[in-house]
């Protein structure tokens, strides 16, 4: 997981459950033998198959998967990463539990590594340059795994090499506001080394912001307050608790965009034009290096930072496996996770891959036995080089752009599957809410509460829906994992599923050993999910959603659930109307467009209901499903954010403006509010962004209206 | 028709045929009564219906349509243009011969008109400014129609107002090369008035090129050599022949792009952001005015040009009519033409609209009688404001972008349907070749030859195909009419169909009265197509193609026919390999991609053949048809030509480079060849364009491969 928005992790509270856990919450009528696979056009979701799937997803097998996956560090393109490619291939080609076919695609991509001969250094020096103190070059070997020769030393991937030296200035989180504040206080920033802590803004942004003030180099440390609920002593931290040891250092990519840096919009295949790395954009402008809090607390005065990172072209593999659809093989339900980690990566990403392998095993077994074949095709994916910037998944979407745009029904991402044992957490676009709810209602939550996953979820994350009343609240999709190119670049309905923690019990920014050498199997086994029941719960939820999407006659996507989002964005926009009206910008067309969407979605759902009562012919069903599948695409606009690489979704592109409305509108409004007096064209941009949103909503409504209406 | 690439017109040679002409070339088995409309998923093309359509398309009705349509001038948005909107609506809503539904969409668009109070002038003046001679302000009233008060005076739409004065310089066609040549000859261009003739380069380009050399104003005249095969005397010209009278002036749009100038990429609806017209681009940089050859021959010395054109926001309507598909209502076959003319517009565009109305009448009658309903939906369109820059059709594609991208099977354009009586002429993308050939083989050519349209066609335009041997040659689609936004912006397989002339008999650049006040009903009735048999031939061809596209179980598009284009582009590229290799650019990946496409297309056609032998289920047919429909989309790239408004098709975007290969590659190569020594990044652009083509071809091949292959 590259960047985390909703957090996970609670210790101890989860009851350890038996491995052969009884699934007690199914509302599925038990029946006789599973039916033979049928290729009839009316083939629909078979509740008995769904039940079988739920029963056979095995927590212990997930645990064994995780042990194997996290046994050794498997940094992208490392020998162990390549060995895992073979492991995945072997599993997916297994004659008894494999898929119809599996293969790899290799991309030659630009990664960034520390220099093996010349380690990065952070030294405190005196005025003559003599070294008074040196930061650690690696984490302390606490449990054995940290001493593995394949542990990559802490570094900031894509940070440029350089050896800046200067007085140390504490710059909080390294946000624009933080540096402005220092400037206001007349702290000298020119040629300084800024010490920042993780959080608040993206990794790369700390260097970008610092460089604007003449800062020469940046350090980033993990603050115990942000990650350990304040705990910082060795005996309070791993292996004594889930907390991060003092020597732990969060690695990460400092690349601003995603995808291979040298081949934006083109697959990083041998034939593709590559930018010269001097011309690539999105790298930090100045050297930057992460350190642990053990070192951070002793730093003072003059600091010398030596960064010797090197850019290297490497071959990174995706592994893809497919189960051919019986009825609509040209409709794809995609399910994926990345394979590469920073170190052993037990939590990130192996908790996800362990679930992926168990899910593909159970489905593969049903397939090979002849018990089942899905209505639509299922594509399993193990992405390479995610940690460097979602590279494998992005290159995949670039290479298969047309095919995916034509045929992809949805993308399910399960990266870190378990942050902690408290509750389900799902991020996704509104149309996936209903299918996730259906699944979550059908599965028991881990622990002894007796609640369904749904009823448990609603206790932790909920909102009041004008339509449904109190429901669990879905998070939105940023760019934290491989779903980003699917939703932002391709407009494919996407989701990310995990189990996470109770926010009342910890304020950790993310699970404490994130991207460190302490993220190991024992860490998961002892602290995150003893008994692996949360893993099993995620496997069941994701598997349930996957089967519903692949097998239901009508796609279980509810387009009407977009109406709530549009309403809330519209209401937020209406708070801007005073200033908008002063600049002759009317929200009237937006109101009309939202109403048209709502009306079209409601009528559309009624048409589905009517069809479901009768016996619709295969093409009537297909037409409806095409509308359901393609709705998300209608929200893309090539004109909205031409300067934002890949982002084109007018609802979910990054929002920097403070008003929670359509991002293009919010950002342009905030710009105009700040600069509009000097630059009247800033208000033109507000009007332009508003028009783009209106045109997209009108297009979305048009897609939902009866197909022979023009 | 805005800009003409393939020319039409031959006089006298066509035999006048009886109106109830017998169609003798059908290979259709005659049968009993037409079957009742069926909504079975296997509904296929009914040859009896096709035969009925061919028989009922009536030359005399087309003639009467044309008389009505061209009775009065109907410049875009004029009262008569609006009256024709009502005429179309009335026809398409007729209870006995109308469509399922019809309606209008209005766009508020920026047009350009002469100033009613202050006519544009071209005067020869002496050194004191006294007027020695004035050009005509309007054409001579030769047949009565030219005296109609609604005739718009000759002008260059979108030319800026201004009153430049200076010595006259003859600048041939006003191409870049022409001005360079004058400069070489040390002719003083600064502050001069350039006299240019139509042809060679686009209208607006003459002003753009002139302005670069300091020219103050431009005149454009129609040379009798280019348009009248040299004839220039009044008694040699209309109404005595089809030739242009001396006073005739070609009007036209001088806008460089297409679509509404103020709302690029957005529909020109009330809610859309509009550029300030000062910020709009694509208008001629200096005043320019068209004149007749009568005036051009007496011009000399000092000339004063007064242009008083005004930009005006006007409401322009499209009229749309739809026949709902019985089986796949969500698949659209579009058939359209523009409605607006410069003056009476008998040829341009009313010959096309007269055919459109006859075709919709016959199909509407079959529909209303309950004899027939197409498998797919048919959308008829009458576009507004085409003459100003394909505005109505472009705004339509902007407004319904998503829906059309998802569902449009093909676009058939019939603008000027008859240039002359010699032969069919079709421009289109390769997949439409086979359906056009099928239609053309089935219909008798006008005249007494006894040949089919196909066999007649091959006598005039042919090529040797490596696959088929000697076949009629299809032209390519530029941006001459409303097909442009469909093919270039949306990637919809498109075609333009017309009857045209024998090039051995005339070298006229286009039919002589093009865009003048002499383009009248009598002109068509007496000279272009007496008896209207060529109109009928076009109606039959276009109707035949339309019915095959709307009714065939498998879409009659042959994707394999793209292979010949790719091969020929590849061969042309291989001629560049010496210089490419010097810059380390290999064509290997392009060779591989072309081979992959060929292989995928061949296998795909084999799969169709196999399916056709059996009894494919409805979803198997739909899958194949989706691949056929969407192939054209895969050739679009948002990254290929970011500076070329709307153009995104990597095969058919405008090519300025001299090598007949992929336009992006050709253009970049030509740039690099000229500037590469000074600017090594020019070769990077060649490599980038090559990668874009390879990625598009790989994507196209992927779309054609078996759908469950990844």
Automatic annotation (TrEMBL), chains A, B:
<keyword id="KW-0812">Transmembrane</keyword>
<dbReference type="InterPro" id="IPR036757">
    <property type="entry name" value="TFR-like_dimer_dom_sf"/>
</dbReference>
<keyword id="KW-0031">Aminopeptidase</keyword>
<dbReference type="InterPro" id="IPR003137">
    <property type="entry name" value="PA_domain"/>
</dbReference>
<dbReference type="GO" id="GO:0004180">
    <property type="term" value="F:carboxypeptidase activity"/>
</dbReference>
<protein>
    <recommendedName>
        <fullName>Aminopeptidase NAALADL1</fullName>
    </recommendedName>
</protein>
<dbReference type="GO" id="GO:0046872">
    <property type="term" value="F:metal ion binding"/>
</dbReference>
<keyword id="KW-0735">Signal-anchor</keyword>
<dbReference type="InterPro" id="IPR039373">
    <property type="entry name" value="Peptidase_M28B"/>
</dbReference>
<comment type="similarity">
    <text>Belongs to the peptidase M28 family. M28B subfamily.</text>
</comment>
<keyword id="KW-0378">Hydrolase</keyword>
<keyword id="KW-0645">Protease</keyword>
<dbReference type="InterPro" id="IPR007484">
    <property type="entry name" value="Peptidase_M28"/>
</dbReference>
<keyword id="KW-1003">Cell membrane</keyword>
<dbReference type="InterPro" id="IPR007365">
    <property type="entry name" value="TFR-like_dimer_dom"/>
</dbReference>
<comment type="function">
    <text>Aminopeptidase with broad substrate specificity. Has lower activity with substrates that have Asp or Glu in the P2' position, or Pro in the P3' position. Lacks activity with substrates that have both Pro in the P3' position and Asp or Glu in the P2' position. Lacks carboxypeptidase activity. Lacks dipeptidyl-peptidase IV type activity.</text>
</comment>
<feature type="transmembrane region" description="Helical">
    <location>
        <begin position="7"/>
        <end position="28"/>
    </location>
</feature>
<keyword id="KW-0479">Metal-binding</keyword>
<keyword id="KW-1133">Transmembrane helix</keyword>
<dbReference type="GO" id="GO:0016324">
    <property type="term" value="C:apical plasma membrane"/>
</dbReference>
<dbReference type="Pfam" id="PF04389">
    <property type="entry name" value="Peptidase_M28"/>
</dbReference>
<feature type="domain" description="Peptidase M28">
    <location>
        <begin position="318"/>
        <end position="526"/>
    </location>
</feature>
<dbReference type="InterPro" id="IPR046450">
    <property type="entry name" value="PA_dom_sf"/>
</dbReference>
<keyword id="KW-0472">Membrane</keyword>
<feature type="domain" description="Transferrin receptor-like dimerisation">
    <location>
        <begin position="585"/>
        <end position="705"/>
    </location>
</feature>
<feature type="domain" description="PA">
    <location>
        <begin position="165"/>
        <end position="251"/>
    </location>
</feature>
<keyword id="KW-0325">Glycoprotein</keyword>
<dbReference type="GO" id="GO:0008237">
    <property type="term" value="F:metallopeptidase activity"/>
</dbReference>
<keyword id="KW-0106">Calcium</keyword>
<dbReference type="GO" id="GO:0006508">
    <property type="term" value="P:proteolysis"/>
</dbReference>
<keyword id="KW-0482">Metalloprotease</keyword>
<keyword id="KW-0862">Zinc</keyword>
<dbReference type="Pfam" id="PF02225">
    <property type="entry name" value="PA"/>
</dbReference>
<keyword id="KW-1015">Disulfide bond</keyword>
<comment type="subunit">
    <text>Homodimer.</text>
</comment>
<dbReference type="Pfam" id="PF04253">
    <property type="entry name" value="TFR_dimer"/>
</dbReference>
<dbReference type="GO" id="GO:0004177">
    <property type="term" value="F:aminopeptidase activity"/>
</dbReference>
């Amino acid at each position: 997981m590259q960047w985390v928005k909703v957090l996970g992790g609670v210790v101890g509270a989860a009851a350890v459950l038996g491995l052969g856990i009884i699934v007690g919450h199914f509302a599925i009528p038990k029946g006789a033998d599973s039916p033979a696979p049928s290729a009839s056009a009316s083939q629909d979701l078979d509740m008995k198959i769904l039940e079988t799937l739920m029963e056979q997803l095995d927590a212990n097998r997930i645990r064994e998967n995780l042990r194997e996956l996290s046994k050794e560090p498997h940094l992208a393109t490392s020998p162990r990463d390549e060995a895992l490619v073979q492991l995945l291939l072997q599993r997916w080609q297994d004659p008894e539990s494999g898929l119809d076919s599996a293969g790899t695609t290799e991309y030659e991509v630009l990664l960034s590594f520390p220099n093996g001969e010349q380690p990065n250094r952070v030294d405190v020096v005196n005025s003559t340059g003599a070294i008074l103190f040196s930061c650690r070059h690696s984490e302390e070997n606490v449990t054995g795994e940290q001493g593995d020769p394949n542990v990559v030393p802490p570094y900031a991937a894509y940070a440029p090499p350089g050896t800046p030296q200067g007085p140390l200035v504490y710059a909080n989180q390294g946000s624009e506001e933080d540096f402005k504040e220092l400037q206001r206080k007349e702290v000298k920033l020119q040629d300084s080394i800024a010490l920042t802590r993780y959080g608040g803004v993206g990794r790369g942004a700390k260097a970008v912001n610092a460089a604007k003030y003449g800062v020469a180099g940046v350090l980033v440390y993990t603050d115990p307050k942000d990650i350990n609920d304040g705990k910082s002593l060795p005996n309070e931290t791993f292996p004594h608790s889930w907390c991060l040891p003092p020597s732990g250092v969060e690695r990460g990519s400092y690349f601003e965009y995603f995808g291979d840096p040298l081949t934006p919009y083109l697959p990083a295949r041998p034939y593709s034009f590559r930018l010269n790395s001097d011309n690539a954009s999105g790298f930090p402008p100045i050297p930057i290096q992460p350190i642990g809090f053990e070192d951070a607390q002793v730093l003072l005065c003059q600091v010398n930072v030596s960064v010797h990172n090197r850019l290297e072209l490497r071959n990174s593999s995706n592994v893809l496996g497919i189960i051919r659809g019986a009825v609509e093989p040209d409709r794809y339900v995609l399910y994926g996770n990345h394979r590469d980690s920073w170190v052993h990566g037990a939590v990130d990403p192996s908790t996800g891959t362990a679930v992926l392998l168990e899910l593909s095993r159970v489905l593969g077994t049903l397939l090979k036995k002849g018990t089942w074949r899905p209505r639509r095709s299922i594509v399993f994916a193990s992405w390479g080089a995610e940690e460097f910037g979602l590279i494998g998944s992005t290159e995949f979407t670039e290479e298969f752009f047309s095919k995916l745009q034509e045929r992809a029904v949805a993308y399910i991402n399960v990266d870190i599957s378990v942050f902690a044992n408290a509750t389900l957490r799902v991020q996704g676009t509104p149309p996936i809410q209903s299918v996730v709810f259906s699944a979550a209602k059908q599965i028991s939550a881990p622990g002894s509460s007796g609640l369904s996953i749904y009823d448990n979820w609603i206790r932790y994350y909920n909102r009041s829906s004008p339509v449904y009343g109190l429901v669990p609240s879905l998070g939105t999709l940023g760019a934290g994992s491989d779903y980003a190119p699917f939703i932002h670049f391709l407009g494919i309905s996407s989701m990310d599923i995990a189990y996470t923690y109770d926010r009342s019990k910890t304020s950790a920014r993310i699970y404490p050993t994130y991207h460190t050498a302490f993220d190991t199997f024992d860490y998961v086994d002892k602290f995150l999910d003893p008994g692996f029941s949360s893993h099993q719960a995620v496997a069941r939820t994701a598997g349930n959603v996957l089967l519903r999407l692949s097998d239901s006659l009508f796609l279980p996507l509810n387009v009407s659930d977009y109406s709530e989002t549009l309403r809330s964005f519209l209401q937020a926009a209406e708070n801007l109307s005073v200033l908008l009206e002063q600049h002759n910008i009317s929200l009237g067309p937006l109101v009309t467009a939202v109403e048209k969407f709502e009306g079209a979605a409601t009528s559309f759902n009624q048409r589905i209901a009517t069809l479901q009562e009768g016996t619709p012919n295969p093409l009537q069903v297909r037409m409806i499903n095409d509308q359901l599948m393609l709705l998300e695409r209608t929200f893309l606009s090539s004109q909205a954010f031409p300067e934002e690489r890949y982002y084109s979704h007018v609802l979910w592109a990054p929002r920097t403006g403070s008003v929670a409305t359509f991002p293009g509108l919010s950002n342009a409004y905030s710009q105009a509010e700040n600069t509009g007096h000097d630059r009247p064209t800033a208000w033109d941009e507000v009007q332009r962004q508003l028009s783009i949103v209106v045109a997209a909503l009108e297009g979305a409504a048009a897609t939902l209206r009866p197909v022979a209406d023009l």
